[in-house]
């Protein structure tokens, strides 16, 4: 069977997701989330409401995935992160309903420091869950979350208690998040 370029790209994306570490999966989710929000904001400024809505809905699906994978029992800052996810979801919903690029920008401004912190953590090998098995992981997570929220996260200090989505069996799609 001969694959066209789109099929080949989709296959490579599936393979990248299936072979990615939990930390890499999380950074991929954040990358796509911020890409969707950037596209939505640009579409809103261009008054392309269908494209803006499509990207905002996809971004909401990613935040829903992040929320559902959050291990609230893993560290005491998890409820704060869950609250942030709820707030950002409300902002994205309002941005979509009211066609308000300022609300989209607010979501970007709140989430970008988290994406940066996750990339820094993944680069130095900090695990994406605060399970309590590594000494001091929950305090590091809480400090990183607070610091990331205010734009001062130290390199490598992030462990927000998100667990990666469960591994998918080979040959299955990435689901509604569009990775597949």
UniProtKB/TrEMBL annotation:
Predominant cellular place of this UniProt entry's protein: cytoplasm
SUPFAM superfamilies for this protein: Flagellar export chaperone FliS
UniProt-annotated location(s): Cytoplasm, Cytosol
Keywords: Bacterial flagellum biogenesis, Cell projection, Chaperone, Cilium, Cytoplasm, Flagellum
InterPro entries: FliS, FliS_sf
Pfam families (alphabetical): FliS
Family per record: Belongs to the FliS family.
Name of the protein described by the UniProt record: Flagellar export chaperone FliS
């Amino acid at each position: 069977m001969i694959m066209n370029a789109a099929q080949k790209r989709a296959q490579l994306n599936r393979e990248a997701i299936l072979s990615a570490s939990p930390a890499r999966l999380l950074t991929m989710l954040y990358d796509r989330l911020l890409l969707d929000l950037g596209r939505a904001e640009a579409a809103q400024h261009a008054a392309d409401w269908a494209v803006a809505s499509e990207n905002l809905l996809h971004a909401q699906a990613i935040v829903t995935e992040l929320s559902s994978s959050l291990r609230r029992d893993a560290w005491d800052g998890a409820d704060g992160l869950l609250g942030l996810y709820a707030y950002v979801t409300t902002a994205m919903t309002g941005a979509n309903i009211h066609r308000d690029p300022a609300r989209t920008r607010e979501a970007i401004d709140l989430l970008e420091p988290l994406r940066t912190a996750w990339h820094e953590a993944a680069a130095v090998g900090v695990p994406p869950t605060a399970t309590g098995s590594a000494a001091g992981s929950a305090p590091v997570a809480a400090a990183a979350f607070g610091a990331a929220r205010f734009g001062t996260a130290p390199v490598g200090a992030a462990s927000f208690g998100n667990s990666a989505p469960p591994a998918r069996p080979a040959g299955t799609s990435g689901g509604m998040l569009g990775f597949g």
